[in-house]
Amino acid sequence: MSFSTPVAKEQTFGGGYGPNGRLIGCSGSADRLTTPALVVDRALLIGNMVALANLAKRSGLRLWPHAKTHKSSELALLQLNHGAEGISVASVHEAEVLAHAGIRNILITSPVIGTDKIRRLVRLTSLAERLNVVVDNLSNVTELAEASVSAGCSRRLGVLVDVDIGMGRTGVTEVHQVVPLARAISSFSPLEFRGLQGYSGIVQHIQAYSDRRRAYLGQLDLLGKCVQALREAGFQVEMVTGGGTGSLGLDIESGILTDHQAGSYIFMDLQYRNVEIFEGQDHQAFQNSLSVRGSVVSANATGRVTIDCGSKAIAIDGPIPEVKDPLSACSYEYYGDEHGRVSFDDQEVRLAGSTVELWPPHCDPTVNLHDHLHVVSGNVLCGIWRIDARGVL
Q1: CA 136 to CA 29: how far, in whole Å?
Q2: Torsion of CA 132, 137, 138, 142, to 10 degrees
Q3: Could you give the CA distance from residue 194 to residue 135 in angstroms, rounded to a whole number?
Q4: Pairing of strands 372-377, 380-386
Q5: From 76, 221, 358, 376, which residue has the greatest number of CB atoms within 10 Å?
Q6: What are the strands, taking DSSP E only, across 261-309?
Q7: Of 306, 136, 353, whose CA–CA distance to 226 is shortest?
Q8: pLDDT reported for residue 326
């Protein structure tokens, strides 16, 4: 038995941009994508960035958009070019990718635990001019300081006290815990106390503004009391960071945050579609720019087709995906890891190879399933961005 000589990966996968790399810039290329493909409308994406930048400027908020949404250094750089002060990340891995891409202002919004991760974290101070991390216990503060000394870091690591304002995930739970932690941080020369974080993910998808206000303003009040306690103890509180896309209106209304971590605003999804971000709004502040494009792989059954978008192409932790711009009333259902089924009310024949585009239920985990983001402008594939920070380590 003989085998053909393997083709170089660069040749096979469009210069590292996947099988669609060959289509970049070609007329009609947006309609010829190999699927399943994660697709973003460039005009809507930029429009969302500009809208948030304008809101932040009017409200006096500094923007640190959360890269856990897109996990792409190219997209993070674009956000910095459209008004962001820095970039928030969820993990050391994401911080490493962004720092090596040239991003200098980074906030890690989850405590970093474990010898290896802490060692990697402090090494990043040589790349990121302003690297920040959150803590919620004294032991972690000591570990960060000792690792910074061992690494011989010449640049101080910014540290914020994480406050649990109602989610019950991470953070100190009482106001009286904040000042001792701030003092501990300040006692170590490799560390610099920079402020507080208070994030409540559980309020982001409460649909009615009034309901969200009832649930959230008390949480923000706790954060405000922590700020007051620090100032009374003589601390400068440079950053009070938190917030998300769903809480943006209330974050602006309250005036407690100085820095905002909205992430999903660039893409949006079905979970956010019905969230009243601003009180009394009759339209969304941000547009749905992200979709997953699939192809019909079987059209043998009347009234339905099988497409190549299953749970490995689109996240399942939310409402059922919806067909974008359907020709007729239709519905999607998961039909396995690799497949989905689209059923139509009419009896029109759909051909194998035709495309079906879906709105994802939850943008963050959907993005994490893909290696590339296909950027389209009209019917042209104008770019492909690597999702280079995907993964968890």
Answers
A1: 49
A2: -50
A3: 12
A4: antiparallel
A5: 76
A6: 290-298, 304-307
A7: 136
A8: 77
User: Residue 13: pLDDT band by 50, 70, 90 thresholds?
Assistant: very low
The dihedral sign for the CA sequence 186, 191, 196, 198: negative
- Residue-wise pLDDT for 143-181, tens only, equals 999 999 999 999 999 999 999 999 999 999 999 999 999
Q: Can you read off the two tokens belonging to residue 190?
A: 């490799």
> Average pLDDT, stretch 224-247?
98
- Rounded CA-CA distance 334/322 in Å is 11
Q: Is the pLDDT of residue 76 over 60?
A: yes
How far is the CA of 334 from the CAs of 35, 285, 288, 311, in angstroms? 16, 30, 21, 7
Cross-strand bridge partners of residue 108 = 89, 133
Q: How many CA atoms lie within 13 A of 181 on its CB side?
A: 26
Encoding tokens for residue 215?
Answer: 């649930």
Largest CA distance in the chain: 80
pLDDT of 10 reads 33
Cβ–Cβ contacts within 10 Å for residue 40, how many? 22
Handedness of CA 34, 40, 41, 43 (dihedral sign): negative
Specify the pLDDT at position 382: 97
Give SS3 for 233.
Answer: coil
pLDDT of 303 = 87
Residue with tokens 């974050």: 251
Task: Check if the beta carbon of residue 99 is closer than 8 Å to that of residue 108.
Answer: no
% the chain with pLDDT above 90? 87
